[in-house]
Amino acid sequence: MLRRLSRYLPILEWGRHYNRDTFSNDMVAAIIVTIMLIPQSLAYALLAGLPPEAGIYASIAPIVLYAIFGTSRALAVGPVAVVSLLTASAVGQVAEQGTAGYAVAALTLAFLSGAFLVTLGLLRLGWLANFLSHPVIAGFITASGILIATSQMKHILGVEAQGHNLLEMAGSLIAHLPQTNPVTFVIGASAVAFLFWVRKGLKPLLIRAGLKPRLADMLAKAGPVAAVAVTTLVTGALGLDALGVKIVGEVPQGLPPLTMPGLAPELVGQLLVPAILISIIGFVESISVAETLAAKKRQRIDPDQELIGLGAANLGAAFTGGYPVTGGFARSVVNFDAGAETPAAGAFTAMGLLLASLFLTPLIFYLPKATLAATIIVAVLSLVDFSILKKTWGYRRADFAAVAATILVTLGAGVEAGVASGVILSILLHLYNTARPHVAEVGLVPGTQHFRNIRRHDVITDPELLTLRVDESLYFVNARFLEEMVLERLAESPRIRNVVLMMSAVNDIDYSALEALEEINRRLAEMGVRLHLSEVKGPVMDRLKRSHFLDELSGKVFLSQWAAWQALSRHARPPLRAAG
Amino acid sequence: MLRRLSRYLPILEWGRHYNRDTFSNDMVAAIIVTIMLIPQSLAYALLAGLPPEAGIYASIAPIVLYAIFGTSRALAVGPVAVVSLLTASAVGQVAEQGTAGYAVAALTLAFLSGAFLVTLGLLRLGWLANFLSHPVIAGFITASGILIATSQMKHILGVEAQGHNLLEMAGSLIAHLPQTNPVTFVIGASAVAFLFWVRKGLKPLLIRAGLKPRLADMLAKAGPVAAVAVTTLVTGALGLDALGVKIVGEVPQGLPPLTMPGLAPELVGQLLVPAILISIIGFVESISVAETLAAKKRQRIDPDQELIGLGAANLGAAFTGGYPVTGGFARSVVNFDAGAETPAAGAFTAMGLLLASLFLTPLIFYLPKATLAATIIVAVLSLVDFSILKKTWGYRRADFAAVAATILVTLGAGVEAGVASGVILSILLHLYNTARPHVAEVGLVPGTQHFRNIRRHDVITDPELLTLRVDESLYFVNARFLEEMVLERLAESPRIRNVVLMMSAVNDIDYSALEALEEINRRLAEMGVRLHLSEVKGPVMDRLKRSHFLDELSGKVFLSQWAAWQALSRHARPPLRAAG
């Protein structure tokens, strides 16, 4: 009973072994993560087009719910860059930024996403995420990084630029360049420069100064907090907001509010497809982080339970003033490196953020939006990596095409169209490849019982016996192709009396392909040629036995191609010795 | 030069051999087909929601254009039942039946369909039609037959029923039952009964009366003409139209008009998807008829040239007052049986219909719509055939699911949704089947060099050597599955020192799968287990050589599984003799 329950509530499993050591480790990790998350949460809320507190709220209830239902010990759930961008894109289509409708639509998006994830998890459909291939994800994240960085440039310049794709954004930025606010630009550019230096230069410096690498790493991660503190102080002290520097302003002080997502059918209809997309992308991002971290400690991640954990987190966000969340890469790695041992570390982080939202919000009144934009830009540019283009180009052009399409469409037509085109193109290219299967004419490798392609190997053949190895499962898309191929090959060689289809690579024969085989058998019989099969696999043979095909077959089914050769070839007469 | 031209203009090929014998055979066939086509064309125009003359016009220019560009010698192009239904469904969504806009939209649909088909043909993309599997087509035609027959019942009853799916239609018919026009019903019901009797009873009767079967068959085919003549005469003589019997009324007398399809962007946008659907369904129907007939005379059909022929026919329909056309089954079979030898028979049929539209239209003023509905009902009910459900159920459940979905969705949500769901479900089920591939653990069949599944055959195995035969191409959808499977299998058997992946059924390895193989190799190396491959196919090996995988591989690549066994197994030491 407890075992069954603990499948759906992993907390019952690790909760039993909780002790003081685990507690102190989790606590240290939580403090570090909390400090890192405060500026990050504010920044991602800005990216999603929501008020800053939404980012904090989206990190509290979701973390706790994931701690209860999730299977990863180190995953930190909350707002992440790509999902924030997707949220802005989806919600921007149904409501104006800054209105109450916008915030409600973000809640609805989180609710739909949570409901969808929990449903997938309960139906054990986690494998569906495999449709998003790794090259497509890599391309998508790179393109998103570029889009996000570009979208934040307006905050660095202090202008009102906008646009739905890279060209529009860049064009709008250039058009608004003359209106650049110089003070904002100084703050934003210094923050970007500082954060890049912290990332690349500070850590080696600290290590040379004698700090341990891990501590140096932690301190470097606190860079954004320093940037936030310094720019807020300067802006407040000098009253820079009067010079046109946009600041965060008043952030409500208090517990996350109880909120109700909008469930009007029209709103749900408009947000359903984006919610599904956000769910799948979020899930794929989250599970790859979770598995990377779990592998390091030889722990196990259950993809279906992860769906439930992330779904619960999103439902939590929907009812506490948040927006769609998932497991983030940066925050999870920090959590893991800081020594988090159980999901309780997440719960402590949530408490830290709760305290922040109760007491710290007045302190960020003067925080410039340019600083937040700088933290986003520096974070996402580390995601940009075009090496996947080079790798796939060298290996397989179809994969390259899928990556290139994902990147170009994401940049040119937005994130939703980008992912959709990557997935659809991957599937179509896969089908295209199987539509014209490789069919090799094979012969016997001398001195063995092994048969290989006559064009690649020096093999023995018999002019009256044609053996074709079909290198693909037979199904509706390629069934007619095989039919045409066999008949054309026979028209070329009128001496052929026996045709063997070697089925070692045929893993399935669907009904359309069965009809094609029946047709081949009939046509060959009319020409006085017998059709045989060899090396038919067990599951395929079981299926063929359920049809009339085997009764009508003019020839035989041989267990091995060697047996077919012995029965049908003239060359088989002199006894051949196997090698070895 | 002429050869190249005759690829695109098959008329240059058969035209050179034309003589008096061919002419007289073609002429006889043309007369028979013309007589059959007159009522059929009128009826299908009614089904498409167009005035009756549109059906005649759609049979004239298209037939001539197909004769010039098409490759089938016997295919008769013109309005057919399913395409007429699809036209009514598509055009009904953009214009009111009976308006000028409706007719123009039908022309636009023909134009778009023609342009799409010609484009596919020039790009040699005929293979795309293979995505419509045979079971899906069979299910779709059966469901369409039911929908069409139901939609015509209102004309038999003389009521105004309507509806977009089977339930709505049936409900509306029942609701309107009290308003049935008794005279119309008598005419309609008698016509249906007569036509069924002609089809089932007349032919045997005529044969028993001493007629030759072929002549008896031809006479039976003229049944609709008799029904049209008798009911028109009776209605006209008794003035039944005054009693509420709906008649065809005035049909313009003259040559087909020159018409211009509407090309407003909005209209084109609304009709593009239906036009693509109509094109593909029409093409698949047409090519299967053409290939069936060509096979009987050992002639060849070129699918890409067929696309051009059908495309030209539709463009012709668009500019001469017609609507979308394709090669019809019934008319083509009649043409073939009547002895048509070349596409010239089609041209003569066009002339016959031209004469009919010049001189015969006043004679059908009193033709009751109920008679036309009766000819449609009897024609389409012969298309209804549920046996595909039984056949696919017995053979393969995935095919059954695709057929059942096609039938149910077509009946419940209309023809377009029906075909789309059939195609999409076929593709998804195919992907699902390849997502969790069959992986068999294999051992040596004693006395051979052949390896088979340990669960199905009595084979020799080695506890330190695990050989897995992967029965599917490896690609993004199943890459992770293989990774998990291998690691789980190893966790069960700690004695294993060598793992061989037997790749005889792996026809492709995409980039995601390459990464999975690299991961498997890395993980096994950590456990001190070596990974080997065997029977890797030529194209797959070429691809792997372009990556670093083979350099990193902890084990070897063996030409055959037998070679792997000899190198790695303890049992291989005593020399084994091959059978035979």
Automatic annotation (TrEMBL), chains A, B:
The chain crosses the membrane at residues 27-48, 101-123, 135-153, 173-198, 219-240, 271-295, 307-325, 345-365, 372-389, 401-429. Pfam families: STAS, Sulfate_transp. Gene3D superfamilies: STAS domain. It comes from Meinhardsimonia xiamenensis. PANTHER family: SULFATE TRANSPORTER. It is found in: Membrane. One of its GO terms (cellular component) is membrane. Residues 455-554 form the STAS domain. InterPro entries: SLC26A/SulP_dom (IPR011547), SLC26A/SulP_fam (IPR001902), STAS_dom (IPR002645), STAS_dom_sf (IPR036513). It is a multi-pass membrane protein. Keywords: Membrane, Transmembrane, Transmembrane helix. GO terms for biological process: transmembrane transport. This is Sulfate permease, SulP family.
